[in-house]
Amino acid sequence: MTDISHVTGHTPAEEIKKIQDERLKEVSFITKIMRRPELGALAGLVLVTIFFIATADPSMFTLAGMMNILSPAAQLGILAIAAALLMIGGEFDLSIGSMVAFAGLIFGSFLILTGWPLLIAIAATLVVAALLGGLNGQLVIRTKLPSFIVTLAFLFILRGLSLVGLKWATGGSTQMRGIGDNAGEGWVREMFSGNALEALFSWLAAQNIIAKFPNGTPTVTGVPVSIVWFILFAIAATWVLLRTRAGNWIFASGGDANAARNSGVPVDRVKTGLFMLTACAAALVAILTVLDAGSTDSRRGFQKEFEAIIAAVIGGCLLTGGYGSAIGAFFGAIIFGMVSIGLTYTRFDSDWFQVFLGAMLLLAVLFNNFIRRKVTGER
Amino acid sequence: MDKNVPLIEFRDLVKHFGSVIALSGVSLSVQRGEVMCLLGDNGAGKSTLIKTLSGVHRPTSGEVLVDGHHMTFTSPRDALDAGIATVYQDLAMIPLMSVTRNFFMGREPVKGIWPFRNVDFDHCDAVTREEMLKIGIDVRDPHQAVGTLSGGERQCVAIARAVYFGAKVLILDEPTSALGVAQTSMVLKYIHQVRSKGLGVIFITHNVRHAYAVGDRFTVLNRGKTLGTYAKSDIAIDELQNLMAGGKELQALSSELGGMV
């Protein structure tokens, strides 16, 4: 009985082979594609593009039109990618919209009230945001409360602090002006505001590859830096998620925190780090938009937390964690930008946007659940 | 090394949770190449014992010796580093993650220099396929989610992972309780294979037949205490069953119900 191989004359491995489930698990090409979490977002993007090609004014798909679409998509996308990583890690952050307003306030205060140089102000803003994100994370981990509730509290706390702080800093106004004048000029500012690749675009205009005004300047003078940040962040997040140890830990923490812990994954550290990352992403969006506008106000980032989560879900993230993609959130944010801006190029009332958004979310969730069950064998 | 020093030994383990005494003096030892079965009904303290051994709980008192050396585990990581790997019944694998990602979870091999350090997934995939083939599971695509594997295969992946990462002692928490007949025999055969490699196995179960199929020695746990340890030659399967039921005559119950229990 103890030594099975003597009885049957096979090695245990052969024995196991024999009793193994003989139903094949051949992986078809379709299954392989379906297994990618970003499939839904990519399909959605194609559908939305086809819709607008059919209905919208052709100027939507010129270079200038694309920049119009990508600018709001970039601001949302930076938040959405961070939200996606956090969701894959099994948590939510409902405070990112308020964090944009709060980070805008402290960034403006560092420039105007304390008169720090831009580089220091940016670094300090990111540090404060990271600390607040870390606080969120530690509260969630230590209290074991759902992150939904903890960060909902911070949604209101940070929005309220932004209002109170703005009034205190400006002597009663909910808007802080003159930030642009205090930011100075130089390479730091160029990294966070204005356009990138201007030389390339001038050259392209000179070569008649892109549209230009009669005086020779291109109609689009460059790529807004927020779009560059958006693309770089998407690439970096995707690489981290798919190729690094931290990425595997993020999937594991969200997939099953207990199993991950038992395998030696530092789940608490991973989650805290992700909360810090989302807060820093919100601060980055605040810095980019505040420098662009030259001012900040208390309504900045309003409801962005929902839009970011919607973009992440459209991008294939499961609400239960452990599954999703950063590049999916990238596409999700572009869908968002395309629909919100694109409707103004059509004869439809642009208020259809919200209807479209809700429908898209519902479709995405249903699609994601279907795919998950189909591909990962969950029963 | 002295052959007679047990691979792992624990003496008089006591664990209290507030006023609840979960373990009141449990002693057990496992030798190389031995399957020690830990039997006990629900509430006997099996789970607490496993969690104490794997570093999740700290014992209130008692000693743990690995290769004759005193050890204190403060986290699951400590126990893993000491060569004690625990395979939990349902917490072993993450269904949404691929076989490879599960296999190397928490111990991913990296290459390159920071900040470009990344996981060597080609190596991981190759190792996963190879290790799975060794136990007779042909994972055609190591990227397939663990959720697509059967329960028996999942347990085997979890055990293979522990063995690959150099476990000396395997603690298996009810590896067969949720499985069908064919899958159970797959897992039991693999346990047999692991033993022949010289590892010590602590096999926790409440199924006497599964235990008797692969066990060398049997320890019965009841209400936080060990009722005794028996070599296979010293005890018959019925006696073991009776002992586990807390001395209650199962035979009597069996006739009362007019059939098998």
Report on the structure:
The complex is a heterodimer of chains A (about 375) and B (about 260). With about 375 residues, chain A is mainly alpha-helical. Chain A has a single domain, classed as ABC transporter involved in vitamin B12 uptake, BtuC (Orthogonal Bundle), CATH 1.10.3470. Chain A is built from 18 helices and 4 strands. Chain A has helices spanning about 5-10, 10-20, 30-35, 40-55, 65-90, 95-110, 120-145, 145-170, 180, 185-190, 200-205, 225-245, 245-255, 255-260, 265-295, 305-315, 325-340, 350-375; strands spanning about 175, 195, 225, 295. Chain A has a two-stranded antiparallel ribbon. In chain A, helix 5 (about 65-90) packs across helix 17 (about 325-340) and helix 6 (about 95-110) packs antiparallel against helix 7 (about 120-145). Chain A is globular and about 65 Å long. The model of chain A is unreliable at about 1-10 and about 10-25 (pLDDT under 50). With about 260 residues, chain B is an alpha/beta fold. Chain B has a domain at about 10-95 and about 165-255: Rossmann fold. Chain B is built from 9 helices and 12 strands. In chain B, strand 1 (about 10-15) and strand 2 form a beta hairpin. In chain B, helix 5 packs parallel to helix 6. Chain B starts with 7 loop residues before the first strand and ends with a helix. Chain B: Belongs to the ABC transporter superfamily.
